[in-house]
User: Fold this.
Amino acid sequence: MLYKAKDKITKSYDTIIIGSGLAGMTAANRLAKLGRKVLLLEAHNKLGGFATWFYRANKKHVFDISLHGFPVGMKKTCRKYWNKEIADHIIQLKDVRFINPQYQIQSEFTREDFTKKLTENFKVSLEQVNAFYNYIEHMNFYDDQQMTNRELFEKFFPGRDDIVRFLMEPIVYANGSTLDDPAISYGIVFSNFMKKGVYTFKGGTDHLIKMMQDELLKNDVDIKKHAKINKIVIEQGRVTGVMLKDDFIPSKTVLSNANLKSTIFQMIGENEFSSEYIEKAKNVRLNSSSCQVYIGIKPGEKIDHIGDLIFTSSYPKFDTKALLAKNITSRTFSVYYPEGRPYDKTPKYAIVSSTNANWEDWANLSDEDYESEKETMIQETIKALENFIPDIRDKIDFIDAATPRTIKKYTHHQNGASFGTKFEGLEVSMNMHQELPGMFHAGSVGIIMSGWLGAANYGVIQANEVESYLYKNDQQHMQVLV
Ligand SMILES: Cc1cc2nc3c(=O)[nH]c(=O)nc-3n(C[C@H](O)[C@H](O)[C@H](O)COP(=O)(O)OP(=O)(O)OC[C@H]3O[C@@H](n4cnc5c(N)ncnc54)[C@H](O)[C@@H]3O)c2cc1C
Assistant:
């Protein structure tokens, strides 16, 4: 059932899931399908977490926040853990462009096409390209985690900054990774994309989340929005439920989809964990944040097809610091054409410009400076867009910007982190239930468990852990009764 904001919850549950990001929702659906009693609590007024959207001007404009592109694996995950209808809405984006001082390339973003570009445009031997792909495709979580991205590229393409940019820039944009991050995090994400290209959801995020909410309710998941949890209740070293304002809701297990650090340090408290675990948790670094400029095109106006995803940069070479810098030189434009939203009553064009960003650059600005910096970002984005659509100024009906502060405000992620934590967060997240019986975490950690596909898959992995815990619990209970 869908609880109303004022409803009191009087039931007890097998699992309470805090947060309805893609990991939280997918875990909820999986556990409900396994026959468990599940309550999904979401702080916001809608489900989805970062998989979200907003309307402006009486729904004249709609903007997707994080629907830029994900790997084909999402189709299989949705078919298996959601339903066929959702999976069938996943379609390929065929026109990905790269425009910077080192090269201008158009691609389908597949291994086949990238191989062609690497051999023909960048003049690398086919043998070398295949060696690189074979190496990254065989990487897995249990591999040596010492190699960095820098070392990976130096091994296969020594001294080739242009190739590093070509292979790495889209992934940096996608998840904020740097040359010093473990190569495994890059290798897995990049290989996932290279399998069959970049995909999107036809109908937009609003349509997807509506379909997911319907499926959750059909499978008897109880849902409450406007339900921010501040405390997870632990008794005698074991999870017993959560506090929703002043009300205790009992549950055998809790799965938190909220930020890893907030879960440990704010909702639970460090006293409930071993000092070794807390030390590791304290050392987990948050991922970087991002800025977006949202542009709605006047109804009735059209824009020519200029590509689906356009990675642009005016910076002379590849530089991860420059990609994050407040003085923006790199933008990725996602162009949303009406065909992508067939269910809307009126055709809609929108453009979203995304840029990686540092929390510190935005966090401490005075209100006045903040507004002025936002305006500068908007104006510079329009200027950059004029290179592709010269008359864009005449076509804009709505424009606004989001910053790391906006992300923090709406998702409660510390420092407005767009992709959770760095790689070391994964171990802390995965081991939470070993430390604290009944307490699980799933959500953007460690890059490979981030993004739409990573988060959804991590939800499944952790739901399986919850199920195995509940099963063992049930068995012990039966033995006591016998
Ligand atoms: C601007 C941007 C662009 C992106 N673009 C892409 C892209 O193109 N492709 C891609 O694959 N990925 C993209 N991502 C990343 C992707 O959207 C996320 O990695 C993924 O959606 C995260 O899912 P999650 O399950 O970790 O949860 P989140 O989305 O982080 O959701 C967590 C939920 O928990 C709720 N919550 C938190 N604390 C509490 C609490 N105390 N009580 C109750 N509820 C709480 C929050 O309100 C939120 O709804 C992008 C992210 C951003 C920010």
Summary: The mean pLDDT is 93. The longest helix spans residues 451-481. The chain has 19 helices and 19 strands. Residues 288-411 form one domain.
